[in-house]
Amino acid sequence: MALIVQKYGGTSVGTVEKIEGVAQKVIATVEQGNQVIVVVSAMSGETNRLIELAKQIDDCPAPREYDVLVSTGEQVTIALLSMAIMKFGHKAKSYTGAQVNIRTDNAYSKARIIDIDEARVRADLEAGNIIVVAGFQGMDEQGNITTLGRGGSDTTAVAMAAALKAEECQIYTDVDGVYTTDPRVVPNARRLEKITFEEMLEMASLGSKVLQIRAVEFAGKYGVPLRVLHSTEDGPGTLISYDNEGETMEDAVISGIAFNRDEAELTITGVPDQPGIAYQILGPIGEANVEVDMIIQNVGADGCTDFTFTVHRTDYQKALEILEKTSQKLGAREVSGDATIVKISLVGVGMRSHAGIASTMFKTLADDSINIRMISTSEIKISVVVDEKYTELAVRALHKAFDLEEKPAA
Ligand code: ASP
Ligand code: MG
């Protein structure tokens, strides 16, 4: 008998009817001879509603109380789903994160899971129950309720699968798998049968929103086989695999194109080209807890150099103010910035063994007269920053150039 962990997100449990639909899917899996643990999110919109309530009282509510509040959405769905499963004639038992002993650190709103005590769940499973667990939450050493960060139910599911050594962790969502790129931008984007864990990690961190990045990291660390599937349509979904890294999936060099509009670009020109300058510019940015992503320093000329870097768009104003101050201190020529950029990335383990990917990418963008502002590369990805208004044009052109579209059945 195999143990399967299934996770259903907010839209999949958005109404009572949908919750009953989920109950039936879970039961079908049990009737195929499996044991099932189901992890659920709050009903769609509920977590946002709770956050909004808190904000009406205080813009910066006490972190402990904030977590007590936002964790309640999931408690509603576990109870409703358990009731639905019982109505259809099966045994079910719901658990909040604390009840299932998901122990976390004390970092409210972004807690990390330390340990899960799976004994109780195991016993309930053996007694023939379907276990329904609230996603997104846990409990610290002192018994305080904590939450795992937005989208954290994915992480709960992966952690449960790791702790109980489940055969597979299935993430049910409103798309039927991981696509070569966002189908809203490229309608003939293709569902991938498989994607390597490394590629999925890149896709998630570069802006693909199918899976929470922490969940992917967690799955990688414990080797949990992960599958993304549609919550109402039948289909195989996409398997995130741990196959031999050298072997490319589906013989494609590129697996996908991710893009991220959440970044902003800042430039400081005419700074002295001397040791310690990068530190003087980026040090204060880091101290203000602003994460820097891409960084470019020009070759110096006449004792001066220029710096460009990107930050999260929500940190743009803060970073700009800090940079202005640094500029005065260093006697720089100018500070400028742009919050309307997009980072577009090609991802594929096949890049390791293929030359010419970057030049094809650059030529494709040039043919559409799209100016590249920054470039960064790693072993399995190439990212460029371009003007945000070119997002659709660039992603479509690249998708075509790398032959990623859905092909009519042969
Ligand atoms: N309900 C939480 C959120 O909206 C967690 C989740 O959905 O995974 O972020
Ligand atoms: Mg969610």
Let me know the largest β-sheet: 8 strands, mixed
For the biggest β-sheet, the strand order reads 3-6-2-1-9-11-12-10
The CATH level-2 architecture of the largest domain is identified as: 3-Layer(aba) Sandwich
The CATH superfamily of the largest domain is identified as Acetylglutamate kinase-like
> What is the CA-based Rg, rounded?
24 Å
The CATH topology of the largest domain comes to Carbamate kinase
What is the 3D shape?
globular
Number of helices: 12
The residue ranges in which pLDDT falls below 50 over 5 or more consecutive positions are none
Q: What's the total count of β strands?
A: 20
Bound molecules: aspartic acid, magnesium ion
> What is the top-level CATH class of the largest domain?
Alpha Beta
Fraction of helical residues: 25-40%
